[in-house]
Structures are given as structure tokens and as C-alpha cells.
Amino acid sequence: MLLKTTPFSDQKPGTSGLRKQVTRFQEPNYLPNFIQSIFNCLPDLKGATLVVGGDGRFYNREAIQIIISMAAANQVGKLLIGQSGVLSTPAVSHLIRSNNALGGIILSASHNPGGPDGDFGVKYNASNGGPAPESFTDAVFKVSQNIESYEIADNDPVDLETKSTTELDGMIVEIVDSVSDYADLMESIFDFDKIRDLISQSDFKLCFDAMSAVTGPYAKEILGNRLGVQAENIIRAEPLEDFGGGHPDPNLAHAKELVERMFSDQAPAFGAASDGDGDRNMILGANCYVTPSDSLAILAANAQLVPGYKDGLAGVARSMPTSQAVDRVAEALSLKCFETPTGWKFFGNLLDDGRITLCGEESFGTGSDHVREKDGLWAVLFWLNILAVKQQSVSDLVMDHWKHFGRNYYTRHDYEGIETSRADEVFNLLESKLADSAGKVMSGRTIKKADNFAYNDPVDSSVSSNQGIRFLFEDGARIIFRKSGTGTSGATLRLYVEHFESDPTRFELDTQQVLKDLLNIAEELAQLTTLTGREKADVIT
Ligand code: VG1
Ligand code: CO
Fold first, then answer.
1. Nearest CA among 481, 482, 494, 499 for reference residue 444
2. What CA–CA distances, in Å, run from 534 to 137, 415, 422, 450, 529?
3. Secondary structure of residue 150 in the 3-state scheme
4. Ligand 1 centroid to 170 CA: how many Å?
5. 488 pLDDT higher than 90
6. Integer Cα distance of 155 and 73 in angstroms
7. Could you count the other beta carbons within 10 Å of the beta carbon of residue 143?
8. Tens of pLDDT along 212-271?
9. In 3D, which of 29, 67, 33 has the Cα closest to residue 50?
10. FRET label pair with 476: which of 54, 248, 331, 395, CA 20 to 30 Å apart?
């Protein structure tokens, strides 16, 4: 049936889909409007296959029932839905690709908290398995601003809990195992025999923190059943609708128990965590934290030790704020290295066009051409495979990497949920300084270039401007300011700071100390204390 509706002005997707508070999504017509707007932008929708799944957060099941009814009324041919409505983001990406689906709908607000008072989100992925490009999300927003009606079937709720194939108004609904296809894909990339041997070594213990989010079932099957990790070493493995009240964000601040275990006398050799929807990863060794930027560089440098990448890499890419550690590896291996705006959607063209094999972001995201999303467990397995071959501790591996390539000291300071007007003031001030910054000396460092980053996609020539303010120094240091596109209240300001160090006697210093002069320069440039009204950042990673 056709239901009348009126537009909501706030349906513009951000860095990764439309994210709002659950209560917003629960308002009558809010979700249907957005879903119909997506459908209206898909000329090939009739008879097509779509994959649907989410990270299991509060409102997941209700949202899926609405999508099922709307898909049936919009004459979709087939829906592939993860059992209980659950699919990790990389698993959705894989199912889209392996089933030649038209696309998929992911229900997740990723690392944002869940529960009735938390956040919810919807993201559309295209037939390559990756987040839809900006041209598509812009079109969806446009449609959402003029929407007058949507189509929805009047059906009984579909049983999501049992694997089955049923029919609804001519549309096939298949409830599929959430884990098995993805687990098989991992087994086809990595040397599971070697990893199993490593895990059985008495001197090798590991701890994986699923953060009460979607990777629990995946970790139990892959790390537990297939690789022999003991159940007690997979913590917070039961997915909860509110993630146990925490932020399902794998970083030093939010994975407390894991971090306590890893920084102790009895620390396991390897620790890792993943986020709400399973696409992020944090890697730790005994008393050692690996920054995501270093992790990307180390994976790139050692990729040929992994069966799936034994023939080498086509190229690599990183998001603009990610440290330049991977650039050094690319240079040494004569690989092309691309710099994209923040957000996985910008890697899609480079991956599809065969220009890159590995890519990553400083925000705990790493991935490859095996899917079109970043992939948390994949990164964990990649590390385990390398460690299994090298028989080295995480900290030795990292130190060897720095000795060879140098160390990019790196930090990100987040000022969360500040008033939008205050954030605007910061960016206006920064913008006003861009023009006459070049050549200026600050704390002994000379600014080489200052700009607002714009990306020219080398594959389809599309241009994405306004992607972050950069101050680039002659010695390679960088200070970057961006506004987050994933928050749901106020504005979140991110400050990224990087300094390259080639002197091996300076490889084990405190990151915040090393970067202090650059942080002071950032303060001078942006007047953060005054303009944000905060003494210091809320989260430092
Ligand atoms: C953040 C990260 C970005 C990441 C995005 C989605 O975006 O900085 O690197 O791609 O989250 O990750 P922003 O606009 O808030 O800086 V996920 O795992 O939340 O989907
Ligand atoms: Co995520």
C-alpha cells in the first residue's frame, strides 16, 4: 500500500550513512522515508537481490521488519538477511559480492553507543559491496527532501531467528547464517594451519574483546572453533542490544578490561578488539599498543607473508588524516600510495579499479580488496598470520619496522559534542589563516603549505572538497583539523598531529610529549581552549 508522508530535513548521510538517535528513528515515517528515498535512487531495484543486516543494536529487528515490508511492496526480488538480523559490516560487504546482489542495507551506528537512548544508523552499500559513493548519498538526500509517499506491505512479522527461505508477496526472503560465509572467506586468505600452531604454543596467549557487539559470534567461530582460542580468552563475546552500556569503540579509552590485561605482568602476547559493527580493530601486544596508522604500514610491509597477498600489493591508500607511515613503506616497495578523504567510501573506486590492495584509516580501520569495507577480524587474522610466520613479539615487530622505516609519532585529540557554533568559530578562524600561513615559522617549524583538503578521484574524476584543514610543515610534520561526520549531537572536532622521527634513540618516547610542541602550535592556530571552552580533549588516541 501507498502511505502519505512528509519530508524530514535531517536525512543527509554523513561519513558513514545516516546516524541519529534511536528516538529519532522511532518517529513515525522517519525510517520509511529514508528507505524509500534509497529505493527511489535504484532504477534496477525491481526483481533485484538486496542483503540486509545490522550490528544487533537496539531497534535492529524492528527496522529490519520495516525494510522487509517496504522491499516487498517495492517489488524487490530477494532479500538475504542475517540470522536474528545480525551481520557484521564486512560480512554484508562479502555477501553482496558473493551473491551478485544489487546492494545491501546495513543497520548500524558502528562505534556510537546503542540502546533506547543511544544511536542507530542506516547505510546503503552498492553492488561492489562498498559504501555508496557521495553522488548516490547526495541523490538520496535530495529525494528525501521531496518525498510524499512510500510503499509498504501489510504483512505479519517475518521470523528472523531461523534459517529458512520463504516468500512474501512474490519476494523471496532468505535468512542466512551470519558467520559461515565470512569465516570461509577468512580461511581462504590466511594460513589457518600456521595460526593454529601459533595459538597452541604455550608461550602465546591472546585475548580478543568483542565489546559485547557484533564480532562475538564471528570470533567464537573463527578464533575459537577454527583456530583453537579458548573461550575465556574471547571476552564480551555475547552481543548485547546496548553493548553493555559502553561505547563499542576499540581504543585505549573504551576497551578498558582488555587494556588492563595487556598492560600487566601477565600480559598475553597478543590482544585485539573490534567495534559495534565489526569493521574496526585495535591491535595490542604485551605492554605495547600499535597505532592504527602503524598497523597499516606494518601489514603493507609484511603482506607477502600471507597467502592471500603472496604476489604483492597493487598499491596502498590511506585517509588524509592517517599518518604517513604507510607512505614510507610504499616508497620502499615502489608502490603507489593514494591519499583519500576520511570515510571508507573513497577507497571503493581505487579497489574496484585494481589500483590498491590494502588501505586504512587512523580511526582503527584497515582493509583490503577482499571486501569493500574495513574489516576488524581480518586485520586481527592478518596480524596473527604475520606473527605466526615471524615468531616475533608484537613489540619486536613494531620496533624492527621503525628501525627500517622510521617512526611517525601520531595522536588524535577529539573534542566531542561541542556546540555547533563554537566549532564553526574554530573553523572560520582556521580558514582565515590559510592564505598567509605558508612560510610562517612556528616553534622552529616552517609551514610549507596550508589548505582545506580536496580530493580528485583519479578513477571517476569526481571532486570532494572541504575534507579537513591541513597545516603541512617542511619537516614532514602535519596538523589537521576536521569536523566529525558520524556524531549525532552537536559537533565533534578532531585534531590530528604527526611528527616523523628517524633517530632510533628516540623511538621509545612518550607520544604526547614528543608531539607537545605541535599540540601547542595547534592550540595557537585554533584557539581551542578559548573557543571550545574545554581545557583538553575528551578522547585522546
Ligand atoms: C569516523 C572516522 C572515520 C571512519 C568513520 C566510520 O568518521 O574518523 O575514519 O571511516 O568514523 O567508521 P568521522 O567523520 O566521525 O571522523 V565506523 O566504524 O563508525 O562506520
Ligand atoms: Co564500525
1. 499
2. 34, 8, 11, 25, 5
3. strand
4. 38
5. no
6. 10
7. 19
8. 999 999 999 999 999 999 999 999 999 999 999 989 999 998 999 999 999 999 999 999
9. 67
10. 395
Bridging pattern class, strands 103-107 and 119-125: antiparallel
Q: Is the CB of 19 under 6 A from ligand 1?
A: no
Pocket test residue of 243, 342, 480 for ligand 1, highest count of atoms within 8 A of CB:
342
Written as nine digits, the cell of 34 is 529514508
Q: Under DSSP, is residue 20 helix (H, G, I), strand (E, B) or coil? A: strand
Per the DSSP assignment, residues forming a β-bridge with 478 are 472, 498
Residue 206 is predicted with a pLDDT of: 97
Residues 294-316 pLDDT 10s = 999 999 999 999 999 999 999 99
Q: Please give the sequence-ordered ranges of beta strands (E in DSSP) within 220-364, or none if there are none.
A: 234-235, 270-274, 281-285, 288-290, 315-319, 336-340, 358-361
**Which residue's alpha carbon is nearest to atom 19 within ligand 1?**
110
- Catalytic residues, by residue number, are 110
Question: Could you tell me which residues are beta bridge partners of residue 408?
Answer: 500
Residues contacting residue 156 through CB under 8 Å, at least 6 positions apart: none
Q: Say which residues have a Cβ less than 8 Å from residue 465's Cβ, sequence separation at least 6.
A: 452, 454, 455
Residue 110 in contact with ligand 1 by CB distance below 6 A: yes
pLDDT at 173 over 90: yes
- Domains identified in the chain and CATH numbers: 2-178 (3.40.120.10), 182-405 (3.40.120.10), 407-540 (3.30.310.50)
Long-range contacts: 333-341, Cβ < 8 Å, 24+? 333/300, 333/301, 335/300, 338/458, 339/455, 340/455, 341/453, 341/455, 341/464, 341/467, 341/468
Environment class of 464 (CB within 10 Å of its CB; exposed 0-12, middle 13-18, buried 19+) = middle
Residue by residue, DSSP assigns 346-372 as: GGHHHHHTTS-SEEEETTTEEEETTSS
pLDDT in tens, 317-364: 999 999 999 999 999 999 999 999 999 999 999 999 999 999 999 999
Question: How far from the centroid of its chain's Cα atoms is residue 357's Cα?
Answer: 17
Q: Give all strands (DSSP E) within 182-308, no chain letters.
A: 206-209, 234-235, 270-274, 281-285, 288-290
Nearest partner of 131 among 365, 461, 414, 480, judged by Cα: 365
Q: Which residue has the cell 513515525?
A: 28
Q: Name the grid cell of 388.
A: 605466526
Report whether residue 215 contacts ligand 1, using a CB cutoff of 6 Å: no
